[in-house]
Amino acid sequence: MGDYGGKTAESLLKEIGGALRKNAFTVFLFDEVEKAPRYIQEALLSVMDSDTMTLAESLNGSQADGPKSFTKIKTINASMFFATNAGQDKILTHSNIDPLELRNAMVADGFSEFLLDRCRDIHVFFPPKTREEFRAVAQVTMRARIKSLEEQKNMRFSISNEDEFLSSLTDKYFNPRSGFRGVLTEVDNVISLSLANKIAASSKPQCSFLFDSLVLESVAPKFNIMPRGVGFHN
Fold this sequence. Notes:
The protein is 44% helix and 15% strand.
């Protein structure tokens, strides 16, 4: 939701209305809602508290002051979920926290009190992730990237030193409070760059060739991808 900084509430409502026009049962997930400006958060109340929303569209393209058409769109069948890290310091440092104290902490972290009070009675708490959970997600991420690489290059790869590579990612990036962006970037970079270097080093770049070993350098032990089968044509 941080991407909505500087945007108008109308632009958000237009996106919501467009999605509902295609599917009245759309499920919306607003991640890190506390990062959106308050006026953006509170604009969502107009969708949550009404059975319909009115979508205004210009009849003359982008002319903001020109004639408009107004369309009513049903919102009653839509579902909205909000994910937030607001108040996490209180949650992580207190075993028993007063609900009002937590509410105030969440508001202080940027969650609109009006939106919070509208949905605070229906919530699910997700505890901080463990090292094992972090490693499992890193493994899924890595294997998905390898699969994508196989499809792009029409090759099959076997993976060696997987445990060492996953351990290095976990040691470098694990933090109970952080997301997985670092892991995603690391996995993508080491695979993509190593493949590019291997292709560039080939003496016959215009011909079919075999990779004998694709070595991916990371923060710790080498991570080797061993191709199975024939190479590809450039």
